Amino acid sequence: MVRGRLLTHWIRGDHVGPSPVDRARPGSKHHLIVDRHGTPLAVTLTGGNRHDVTQLLPLLDAVPPIRGLRGRPRRKPRHLYADRGYDFDKYRRLLWKRGIKPMIARRGVAHGSGLGKVRWVVERAFAWLHQFKRLRIRYERRADLHQGLLELACSLICLRRLRTVR
After folding, report:
1. Which of 22, 32, 42, 142 has the highest CB neighbour count under 10 A?
2. Count of domains forming the chain
3. Where do the Transposase IS4-like domain residues begin and end (predicted)?
């Protein structure tokens, strides 16, 4: 599941852009791809004015190999669930070329596509990320520091998930 979440705060620096929903205040956006259990696989940081779909392929490329029981590790997921923000035919074709079945809600179609059953997983992952105050409101001017904190938070979430699985 892929999703982007917008953060607005009075900051300047890299990866900051005018928010399209909050009176053009400067903000940043976290883009996250998770597995079916909500474990973060890859995360990126962009300006608030960047569209979510622009980060779809870079996030897929950043996913590490998926280890199985035997044989070569999988390099890609079988399915990709996403909301209406990712509904572009160009990206659907690119996903099919990579051997990934896109399960993306259609724009302009009434709700009830069934993605609500799986969307809560990525929303919960964002809730886990934003329990860290430094990620909920961006105070750092340098994007590399905020990206580092974002990756550290993802590592902590993965560690907590491993402790509960045992």
Report:
1. 32
2. 1
3. 22-156
Model pLDDT for residues 73-90, shown as the tens digit of each residue: 777 788 888 888 888 899
Look at residue 9 in the predicted model and tell me its pLDDT: 45
Residues in the chain: 166
Task: Output DSSP code: residue 66.
Answer: B
Does the residue 82 lie in any domain? no
Q: Has residue 54 been placed in a domain? A: yes
**With a cut of 50, which residues of the chain have pLDDT below it?**
8-10
Supply the pLDDT for residue 96. 93
Is the pTM of the predicted complex or chain greater than 0.90?
Answer: no
- Write out the residue range of the structural domain in which residue 52 sits: 4-70+110-165
Report the SS3 class of residue 21: coil
